[in-house]
Design goal:
By secondary structure, the chain is mainly α. It has eight helices and two strands. The chain has a two-stranded antiparallel ribbon. A hairpin with a 3-residue loop joins strand 1 (about 65) and strand 2. The longest helix is centred in the middle third of the chain and has 25 residues, at about 80-100.
Length: about 180
């Protein structure tokens, strides 16, 4: 029986994920210049792949580029952070409300399981996996609530504040808070 073949991840997608993660976790700091040659060496990919990744990260506003200087990790200002959190709050409240109305017992069990996993990852100080599981938790809420456009917007906003989310998740005692 013929079935669709799972597509392997492209080199660009893998490199893009690594760069995004490096920005989120602070390995590449806000304001830090992104030198193609250095990134090629560190990731083991070509300049073409790095250029594509940088363009993509610019579209996500995680990277900025200054003429005659080059690309660097974007710096987020306090007023932008406040606005992003206010928008996220509106979108998340609508999604949670809709999810609560439409969720069945299987959805509730899945969300509880994700929360357990998040707590376990935080107790293990595995911020990367905690962030991934947190993203899936919210994806489930937005999906159940039938809010795909809102989820797209939240993902874009989360990309811009990823570093702040990582710092928050790493804060002392976070895993034990309810």
């Amino acid at each position: 029986m013929l079935r669709r073949v799972d597509r392997p991840r492209t080199l660009k997608d893998s490199a893009l994920d690594r760069l995004r993660e490096a920005i989120t976790l602070g390995e590449l700091a806000p304001g830090e210049r992104l030198v193609e040659r250095v990134l090629c060496d560190r990731l083991g990919v070509s300049r073409t792949v790095i250029r594509e990744c940088i363009r993509h990260l610019q579209s996500e506003r995680l990277v900025t580029s200054v003429p005659n200087v080059g690309p660097s990790v974007a710096i987020l200002h306090a007023d932008e952070v406040d606005e992003i959190y206010a928008i996220r709050e509106m979108l998340e409240c609508a999604a949670v409300n809709q999810c609560a109305q439409l969720a069945n017992s299987a959805t509730v069990a899945k969300l509880r399981q994700r929360l357990t996993h998040i707590t376990e990852y935080l107790e293990q100080h595995d911020v990367v996996e905690a962030l991934r599981e947190t993203t899936q938790f919210y994806a489930d809420i937005f999906s159940t609530g039938g809010k795909p456009v809102s989820w797209d917007l939240v993902q874009h906003l989360n990309g811009r504040i990823g570093r702040l989310r990582a710092v928050t998740l790493q804060s002392h005692g976070r895993a034990s808070r309810g």
